[in-house]
Amino acid sequence: MTADNLFLRIARGELPADIVYRDELVTAFRDIDPQAPVHVLIVPNHHVASIAEAGPDDEPVLGRLFLAARSVAEQEGLAEGGYRLIVNCGAHGGQEVEHLHLHLLGGEPLGPMRCRRKEH
């Protein structure tokens, strides 16, 4: 699944989404199943399967993902209170769509990253 994945089709404007930021390298849109009051996905406009697949040619878009996240956080009023950025990689990392994406979450205290595992 490369040129036809869901996120790439949104970035190309082929599928509807609530776009909150777009430039020549990345597109940001609201998640359809938000996990926080603000949950925005930021994706490259060209196909990069995951951070594990990114190469040296992807360096400009990798930096832009984070700068776009900062801009969206400011636009959404999250800059002062803070926010979380998450990149999932692969099945064990929870990546559900085979296209690199950055989750921007905020709008309330988010708590710890994950619950501590109980000792067996």
Walkthrough of the structure:
The chain has a single domain (6-93, 101-106), classed as HIT-like (HIT family, subunit A, 2-Layer Sandwich). With 120 residues, it is α+β, with helices and mostly antiparallel strands. A five-stranded antiparallel beta sheet has the order 1-2-3-5-4. The protein is built from two helices and five strands; from the N terminus they run αβββαββ. It is globular, with a radius of gyration of 15 Å.
List the helices and strands and how they pair.
Blueprint: H1 6-11, E1 19-22, E2 26-30, E3 38-44, H2 59-75, E4 83-86, E5 102-106
How many helical stretches?
2
Tell me the number of strands.
5
Order of helices and strands: HEEEHEE
- Radius of gyration computed on alpha carbons: 15 Å
User: Between the first and last Cα atoms, what is the distance in angstroms?
Assistant: 39 Å
Superfamily (CATH H level) name = HIT-like
- What count of structural domains? 1
Strand content: 15-25%
Largest beta sheet: strand ordering: 1-2-3-5-4
Shape: globular
